[in-house]
Design brief:
The complex is a heterodimer of chains A (about 475) and B (about 325).
Chain A lengths: L17 H7 L6 H19 L12 E6 L4 E5 L9 H5 L23 H9 E10 L2 E7 L1 H5 L8 E3 L7 E9 L1 H7 L3 H15 L1 H5 L3 E4 L2 E2 L6 E4 L11 E7 L2 E9 L6 H9 L9 E6 L2 E7 L21 E9 L19 H23 L4 H10 L1 E4 H7 L6 E3 L6 E4 L22 H10 L7 H18 L1
Parallel strand pairs in A: 1-7, 12-14
Antiparallel strand pairs in A: 1-2, 2-6, 3-4, 3-6, 4-5, 7-8, 9-15, 10-11, 10-17, 11-14, 12-13, 16-17
Helix pairs in contact in A: 2-4, 13-14
Chain B lengths: L9 H16 L11 E4 L6 H9 L5 E5 L2 H10 L5 E5 L2 H7 L7 E6 L5 H11 L7 E7 L14 H10 L15 H19 L7 E12 L3 E11 L3 H8 L14 E3 L6 H8 L8 H9 L7 H14 L12
Parallel strand pairs in B: 1-2, 1-4, 2-3, 4-5, 6-8
Antiparallel strand pairs in B: 5-7, 6-7
Helix pairs in contact in B: 4-5, 5-7, 10-11
Classes of the chains: A alpha+beta (about 475), B alpha/beta (about 325).
Chain lengths: ~475, ~325
């Protein structure tokens, strides 16, 4: 019998494969989110520049995104990439070196993949030119570099392209799918991208940052809460909670953004969605960037621990939680920075308060059932305050310090107005009839397009009048 | 159940004739009209079906109607034997519709402007086979959003933004006050619907517009017609329709106004001999009439230019004794 051949165990190769970064990593992110990553870098650049301050800290800074069938570009005036940071800006992933300059407060770049992933997501050729003070240089990523596994170095060219500090990234040789998005599906993609930027960047744009897509500036989408001033009881105000935990400042508010819907409005919304539901839900902000926008899932506490599942009847309820930290790695975000890390202990604690606040407003909505118009009138009496205004107004609110529930912090729980008689003297009548018949009866009452509930009410009133006469 | 009298809707009549002209061009894409089935919302008089039967008797037709009384009235007005009356709503009909690869002509002839109209258009785009034609008509009335003092009705504009957010070019798009711009916004919204239903990245088919108009017979309306075609074959559609004077083959081109002036039969017969007229038709026809039919020369010539353009689509209405 032949003797078995002995295997010689040599050290195995654990070095990274370039195609993993180029082809695989890009699958984990949507194109729109990859572009938002580039905007995140712009904002981090602003914060690094140290030229921020005041109520509108981002004023004077801008980013212009342009795309067409052949190319994508983003140009900003946000401070550029200092040569001292080149190792971190261009390396695939962030090494844990102790000599890296400390990030200024508020930046969100923590993993060192955003820009590269966005580039590889879109195309095979890229030119990055930047100016930061005395540093002015250009780096070209070519298809040849991408295809050569063992070639990791890229030459840097000294150039003078920028009048002021900033960066321009031009991506060419676009992947076929991306090129189609930028041409054949450009209108829908533009709409989607603009909407995402308007939502996720609403707080930063509101604070002065200017973003344009194909030459057209973007306006922020601002959530405003009903706030009845001068009335501490029987009031309409948002719930507010604030705390600081492990170097993270947290400010949470939840309340009404509009009047609670009537049953007819709920039915109407369900039958023919008008997308106003998209305005409800939780927005989570990490260092000024919305990482979650109007979420209505269990991720933000809906349908969890006594909070009902989201339903159209709760369309008026919105909440915002802001996390702020000088150390981005402490923020409860995912690597894409467009999602929340649900396993984060900090987030789980804060979610308790999110649910607590939400329950107050779902309870209010349930208690006012049958009297929605009255509740709506009450809510409409209040001013509509933005998140920043709520933070200002919070200075005048009476907070309680909570130490025995976690997270501990300062809490303002509004004493919301409740219906005078808990037991309603009226009852709802609802029934279903064929549309054609409803129109015929509507026509009998003088308007064939009368709303179905209006037709029902008219019928009842008419018969009631006759019945009362007998 | 009330439908406006036809003689009070001359521009709607022109819209119908424009559909006839568009259908006439379809064989240029290959095949015959007998391969198509027409699906429409015929209304009590089934006017569209009557017209299609007059011009293209080889096209079988289906009229979709959910109102039982209107259905009875349609039964009474049946213009031909190759028309099937389908007791259903359009949304439900589209859900059940299976083309079995047979080419279709759909006219989504809505009188309202609601998100569901766009939703049904998208659902249909996903189901019709190549070389099918879809025409969609929508309410396009700026006065729904602007008051008589030319101020925007903020609540209505906000409701518009919320309802159409998924297909608006911008989240803060305001419904334009100008009827032409309003129609153009609807055209852009339909283009977004097309890109959502038939994304370039996954679908070889696209929807190539062939005409778009706006008009008012008391209420502003917008209509757009197009054909589903392989992306690689859009030039074929362009070639097939480019000689048609009313073709609008480019999403970026604004819809064309239909505003046919009211002329008496005697006036129309008088002008008949000078048509078609391509060189300064407004001035030529005004000179022939010898008087103004609107407030001033400019308006008169503009109205007569419209007449010159659409006179073939403008029906004669006669009083008759049954």
């Amino acid at each position: 019998m032949e003797k078995a051949k002995q295997t010689e165990y040599k050290p195995v190769d654990f070095s990274p494969v370039k195609s993993f970064f180029v082809s695989m990593l890009t699958r984990d992110i949507l194109l729109e989110d990859a572009i938002l990553d580039l905007l995140d870098n712009c904002v981090d650049g602003i914060l690094r520049s140290g030229k921020t301050g005041g109520e509108k800290p981002y004023t004077g800074f801008s980013a212009a995104i342009d795309f067409k069938k052949e190319s994508f570009s983003i140009t900003d005036n946000c401070g550029g990439i200092p040569w001292t940071l080149h190792d971190y800006a261009f390396k695939l992933g962030r090494a844990t070196k102790s000599d890296r300059p400390v990030d200024p407060a508020g930046t969100v770049g923590a993993y060192g993949i955003g820009m590269k992933r966005a580039i590889f997501k879109m195309g095979k050729h890229c030119l990055i030119s930047t100016r930061s003070g005395q540093d002015q240089y250009e780096i070209e990523i070519t298809p040849d570099w991408l295809d050569t596994e063992d070639k990791w170095q890229i030459p840097v060219k000294k150039v003078k392209k920028h009048d002021k500090d900033g960066t321009t990234i031009v991506i060419g040789e676009l992947h076929e799918g991306i090129s189609k998005k930028f041409s054949e599906d450009a209108d829908d993609f533009t709409r989607e991208l603009r909407g995402k930027i308007a939502g996720h960047y609403s707080f930063i744009i509101d604070k002065g940052f200017e973003v344009s897509v194909n030459g057209k500036p973007i306006s922020p989408l601002t959530t405003k809460f009903a706030f009845l001033k001068g009335k501490d009881e029987n009031t309409i105000r948002p719930y507010v909670f604030k705390t600081k935990s492990d170097g993270v400042d947290i400010f949470l508010t939840v309340g009404f953004t509009r009047g609670i819907p009537t049953p007819a409005e709920i039915l109407d919304e369900e039958k023919s969605p008008k997308y106003s539901s998209q305005e409800a839900g939780w927005t989570i902000i990490c260092n000024d960037r919305a990482v979650l926008y109007n979420d209505r899932s269990i991720l933000t506490g809906w349908g969890d621990s006594g909070v009902p599942q989201y339903h159209t009847q709760f369309i008026a309820i919105s909440g915002i939680v802001e996390f702020k930290s000088a150390d981005a790695s402490k923020l409860p975000t995912t690597t894409t920075k467009r999602g929340i890390d649900a396993s984060s202990a900090l987030y789980q604690q804060v979610k308790n308060k999110m649910r607590e606040g939400m329950r107050i407003f779902t309870d209010f909505t349930n208690k006012w059932k049958g009297k929605e118009e009255e509740a709506k009138a009450l809510i409409q009496q209040g001013e509509r305050l933005s998140f920043e205004k709520i933070k200002e107004e919070a200075k005048n609110l009476h907070f309680h310090r909570t130490l025995r529930t976690f997270p501990s912090g300062d809490l303002y729980q509004p004493k919301l107005a409740m219906p005078v008689k808990p037991e309603p003297t009226s009852r709802r009548i609802s029934f279903t009839k064929e549309m054609a018949k409803i129109r015929t009866v509507g026509e009998y009452f003088g308007n064939r397009d009368m709303a179905p509930n209006g037709v029902g009410e008219k019928c009842f009133d008419k018969i009631y009048e006759e019945a009362s006469r007998k | 159940m009330k439908s406006p009298a036809y003689h009070l809707r001359p521009n709607k009549a022109a819209e119908r004739f424009a559909l006839i002209e568009a259908i006439r061009h379809l064989p240029k894409l290959g095949g015959s009209l007998g391969e198509y089935t027409y699906y429409g919302l015929g209304g009590p008089y089934l006017e569209d079906c009557r017209l299609i039967y007059d011009f293209f008797p080889e096209i079988p037709m289906v009229s979709v109607e959910e109102n039982g009384e209107v259905l009875k009235r349609q039964q009474f007005h049946m213009p031909c034997g190759n028309l099937t009356l389908e007791p259903n709503g359009m949304k439900s009909f589209i859900t059940q519709y299976q083309s079995n690869d047979e080419k279709s002509i759909f006219w989504l002839d809505y009188t309202r402007l609601e998100y569901t109209c766009f939703d049904e258009f998208k659902a249909l785009l996903e189901k019709v086979p190549e070389k099918s034609m879809i025409k969609i008509t929508l309410r396009a009335e700026p006065d729904d959003f602007w008051d008589e003092y030319k101020n925007i009705r903020t609540d209505k504009a906000e409701a518009f933004q919320k309802e159409f957010r998924e297909i608006l070019p911008d989240t803060d798009t305001i419904p334009p006050r100008d009827a032409g711009e309003f129609a153009y916004l609807l055209q852009r919204m339909l283009k977004i619907c097309v890109q959502q239903a038939l994304p370039g990245i996954t679908t070889p088919l696209t929807f190539q517009p062939i005409d778009s108009f706006y008009y008012s017979d008391g209420t502003g309306m917008f209509t757009l017609t197009g054909v589903t075609i392989r992306r690689t074959n859009t030039s074929r559609v362009r070639k097939a329709f480019r000689d048609w004077e009313f073709a609008n083959l480019d999403w970026k081109k604004r819809p064309r106004l239909i505003e046919i002036p009211i002329l008496s039969t005697k006036e129309r017969l008088r002008l008949q001999g000078f048509l078609p007229c391509t060189a300064s038709p407004g001035a030529t026809l005004r000179a022939e009439l010898g008087y103004l039919i609107d407030n001033d020369i400019t308006k008169t010539e503009s109205a007569l230019e419209q007449y010159a353009a659409f006179h073939r689509y403008s029906p004669y209405y006669m009083r008759g004794t049954p």
